[in-house]
Design a protein that fits this description.
Blueprint lengths: L5 E5 L5 H7 L3 H6 L10 H15 L3 E7 L4 E11 L4 E8 L8 H16 L4 E6 L4 H9 L3 E12 L2 E10 L8
Parallel strand pairs: 4-5
Antiparallel strand pairs: 1-2, 2-3, 3-4, 5-7, 6-7
Amino acid sequence: MPAPDVRLALLERRHLPALEKLLGDPAVLRFTRVPEPVPDGFVDSWMAVYERGRDDGSMEAFAVEDGAGEVLGVAVAPRIDRDTRTAELGYVVLPRARGRGVAGAALLQLTDWAFRELGALRLELMISPENGPSQRVAQRCGYVHEGTLRSLHFKQGRREDTQIWSRLPSDPAPG
């Protein structure tokens, strides 16, 4: 399958309507840190956190757009540690964009950005053991499953294991 025509654009307030759509997706709520039920004003406060993180260099967020500029999802670095040159990355795509290679294309671009712009020496993905599609994206993008962190994720009074996947600049290119 040819790579989809997607690009990362710095996440801006103009992208907020698309983020609101993401919050209506049960899979996004199940496999992300978004609280349930989603509080009023959540998207605005979430955006403000990423704007502060952009300013201090500790976080970054991008809209995943198609060639026409339509938002297909988001790609984020919710944790950037400049001292250790590590970053946690994440990606979410709208249901209509799934199964078309959009998540993989976004993750590859986000990975390239982190290695190039941050000088990262270690990138991490935190994935639910129940999120098979995200695990397949990680593997296709050259990430290595290192193990499972037991009872790490806590949301809505429930604890869950979390897989950790990583990629280093010295790892072989995917494909």
